[in-house]
Amino acid sequence: MPLSALTLVFTAFSAPARAESDDDAALALAWQVAWDTYRFYEWVTEPLPWDGRSRVSRDISIDIDAPVQRVFDAYSDVNNHIGMHSFLKRIVTHKDWTEGATRYVNFTAIEDIPVAGVPVTSRTHAQQRIHRDELYYETDTWTLPNVVTHQRIVFQDLGGGRTRVTEHLTFEASVLLIDFTVTNGVASHQATQAGLKAAIENGDI
Predict the structure, then answer these.
(1) Per-residue pLDDT for 145 more than 70?
(2) Nearest partner of 165 among 144, 130, 194, judged by Cα
(3) What is the pTM of this model?
């Protein structure tokens, strides 16, 4: 679910100046506006060159010495990601419900990015769809200036109490931001993977 640090820094300076609140109700309203405006979960067509946007996909994997169901439950709980990456400070859940066998979670991630020694707050709006019976979940995120990520995280039972987690990541951003978004977004996900691996294997989560 983390975005690139440089993308977020760019966001902080490219967004129009305005007062923003981290009050839960205000964040819920901001989430709904983002959802209604951008529908960041939808894939319609590949971004066109004259739109000034680009899409890049990457896959990253990690093996964890723990049973697959335990890994899945710990890994898919976004609150467990707090502290695994230095920027992520808070998760605000707006709605959590189940339809059929799928659990949906609408949330906003609050991240503090240090810029010249001053923390700059970024708000990433997301929807997670958890398919526990099939051992995968999906998360789509949106943040200013219209940076989108699509994530599909798959859990494979390797036997012997070991699990492989593979993250299929797709980043969408302007052509000016896409390289920073991909490079730093992948690095952030890898750092989170390593943190979750250590916490799960140590029994901390």
Answers:
(1) yes
(2) 194
(3) 0.84
